[in-house]
Every structure is written in structure tokens, then in C-alpha cells.
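Progress note, sequence design subtask.
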């Protein structure tokens, strides 16, 4: 099983980023997919999840700003992040059950 995140980077407050996570080694369409994040000194927290039928759940602080989606044909889950603020700075991880990606750094700073 492999999960490979990409799309992180440095962005100014108010900006946008789109994270991608390409999965391999398992039947992607059968798994709930999650995005977590971890900021320095903080515990890892669930940001968003998308179920096998497309149902979604978000962390309260990102509701209305972030959108999770999936493309089962491409074995890929996305996280569109808009109106970013410095509190969103963290390493973002893709997750499928017990499997984790390596993470991608998102830094929001002017």
C-alpha cells in the first residue's frame, strides 16, 4: 500500500492550494479516505474525510474553506484549500485505515 501526497507549499494568507494523494496497492474505491494535519507541538487532527459513497465530514475550523473530493478512476483524493490562514500551517497527511502517506508541508505566511 502506498499513499503519495503532493501539492503543498508556501502561500500567502487568503491564498489557495490543492493537495493530491495518489493511492496504490489496494482497492481505492472501497476505502474511506481522510486528510489529517499536524502542526509543530500539536497532535495530529482529522481535517476531512470522504466516504465510499461520497459523503464528507470536515473539521469545524475548515468548513466552508476546504473541499475534499475523490476520483476513483485515478485512485486519487484531493483537498482543495481556500482562504488559507496561518493557523492552517501544518504537515498534511493522507490516510486510508492504518496506512499513511509521507505528508506534504503547507505553510501560510506573508
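Output:
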Amino acid at each position: 500500500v502506498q499513499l503519495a501526497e503532493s501539492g503543498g507549499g508556501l502561500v500567502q494568507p487568503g491564498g489557495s492550494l490543492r493537495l493530491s494523494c495518489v493511492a496504490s496497492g489496494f482497492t481505492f474505491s472501497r476505502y474511506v479516505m481522510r486528510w489529517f494535519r499536524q502542526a509543530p507541538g500539536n497532535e495530529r487532527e482529522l481535517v476531512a474525510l470522504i466516504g465510499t459513497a461520497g459523503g464528507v465530514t470536515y473539521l469545524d475550523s475548515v468548513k466552508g474553506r476546504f473541499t475534499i473530493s475523490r476520483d476513483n478512476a485515478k485512485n486519487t483524493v484531493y483537498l482543495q484549500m481556500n482562504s488559507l490562514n496561518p493557523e492552517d500551517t501544518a504537515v498534511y497527511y493522507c490516510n486510508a485505515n492504518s496506512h499513511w502517506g509521507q505528508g506534504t508541508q503547507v505553510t501560510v505566511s506573508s
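The chain has no helices and eleven strands. Work on this subtask will continue into the next period as scheduled.
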